[in-house]
Amino acid sequence: MKKTFILSFSLKNTYRVNGILYSLKQIPLVKRLLPEALYGVWGLKIFANILSAIWEVVSVFLGKGLYLLLMVFLPGLLYDGLPGEGVFLHILLFLTVIGCYANTALFNPSKDKYYAILLMRMDAREYTLVNYGCSILKTVIGFLPFALLFGLLSGVPAWLCALLPFSIAGCKLSYVAYMLRDYKLRGNVYNESRLDKFQWLGIALLLGLAYGLPAFGLVLPLAVPAALSLLSILIGAACIPGIYRFQGYREVCRGLLADAMFQMDAPARNAQTIKAANEKKISADVSVTSRKSGFEYLNELFILRHRKILWKSAERISYVCAALVCGALLALFLKPQLRPIANKLVMTWLPYFAFILYAINRGTGFTQALFMNCDHSLLTYSVYKRPGFVLKLFRIRLREIMKINAVPAFIIGAGLALILFASGGTDQPVNYIVLVVSTVCMSLFFSVHYLTIYYLLQPYTVGTELKGGTYKLVSIATYMVCYFLMQLRMPTLLFGGMTILFCVLYGIIACVLVYKLAPKTFRLRAG
């Protein structure tokens, strides 16, 4: 297994290094300075290897530290009147159960498994055991310092903090052993990237128990998580021999990677698969028509025929947001002691909702549908790229994506205003208006933003693959800014006013850029 470990590490490192070099080649200002034979430059490969090593170390700790901080420790501070150690362990217990089947590592159809087992013909059993063992080891090592830090800050006994990483690993081992046994009995290969509706329902239920019960003053007694932690360690340890002796890893991996053989061997096929799936949702009703003319006619036909793709998810998000608002109002009615907390949150946590609106925004799906089912063909005509026509169609499309995103945003804004009123109100009534208008403006910003970068950085190839490196960098930067805003605490009136002003200015600048640059940048990519 030592040889397998070395080959596995070398494969992952090579894949990561090549990915870093490819990303560097996609940066507009940097790619001109780089040589054509990029992958053969010794100095750049050393640089990429250093970045890869840093990322390997950081990945062991960073994700797990942020997980405990953002998902367990900080939410626990919101529940006043409850023991900190009880809330910490209560939330962590239910989230650990989710992680048992949603993040197994062994049943993840990753690219390194595909390359190693199917292409390089490595021993499936040795490869799986080595990598799964490393994954469990990383889980324990990565969680240990943060479990001690945040656990002690919450009042959890030191001995129990030290056991938590081992109990998390024990839960993962137990579930993997159970699914391997299920494969022996029924031949079904579990795939963590394809959770069914019951598993998603289970995630929703467990999240509700994790964060909902403390809102009503209910947490599990300290003895329950402590006993379950010890039990999971014992059961996990007992499952190790069965996992080690299992002989059907090649069959499991083949079943797990069956779709990967199709998708990873030719990325273009994956894009075509997505396109084919979308085409099934497009209305084939020949009676769908429009009384408008020109680009308005083209746009209305597109919207009517693609309603399931464009509006269905927005409608579902709207229903969920409305249900959450009703649940929050009910909690404030049943638990009056929560009202001061809710009032304070609404008055200072508006920046947090920038990330929420970023997450539910449908800009990417809208532009993907535009390209695959419209622009993919229309961009072959030069008349379609005239500056005036580009700007006109941009404005029409912007209006439509704004409508789609504004519905859930308005529900969130109106819901925040209702929660503010139900939790004691405010001395400045203008805050109610700012809450509604600013959330809608944030939604409008993301609508403008994603449509603008689509026009300026058109990232799709002729084969409908997403290849634009700069587009990906801008998307990552957008995510980072929104994530930073989650940590920001600012009065609603101040942040809301700044948001409204920024969105107006950004919209004006975006229209100017699209008019000036899009005729040159909005084109089909060769690859």
Describe the structure.
The protein has 527 residues and is an all-alpha fold. The protein has 21 helices and no strands. Helix 4 (84-102) runs antiparallel to helix 6 (124-154) and helix 18 (387-422) runs antiparallel to helix 19. The longest helix is centred in the last third of the chain and has 36 residues, at 387-422. The radius of gyration is 26 Å and the shape is globular. It starts with a helix and ends in a 6-residue tail after the last helix.
Give a concise summary.
It contains 21 helices and no strands. By secondary structure, the protein is mainly α.
The best one-word shape is globular
Largest sheet: none
Helix content: over 70%
Radius of gyration based on Cα positions? 26 Å
What amount of the residues lies in strands? under 5%
Order of helices and strands: HHHHHHHHHHHHHHHHHHHHH
Summed over residues and divided by their number, the pLDDT gives a mean of 80
Low-confidence stretches: 262-274
Estimated structural class: mainly alpha
Q: What is the strand tally?
A: 0
> What's the end-to-end separation, in Å?
40 Å
Total of DSSP H or I helical runs spanning 4+ residues: 21
Give the arrangement of secondary structure elements.
Layout: H1 2-26, H2 28-31, H3 42-76, H4 84-102, H5 111-119, H6 124-154, H7 158-186, H8 197-215, H9 223-245, H10 249-256, H11 258-263, H12 267-280, H13 294-305, H14 307-334, H15 339-348, H16 352-360, H17 363-378, H18 387-422, H19 430-457, H20 469-486, H21 492-521
Question: Which structural traits does this protein have?
Answer:
78% helix; single chain; 527 residues; mainly alpha
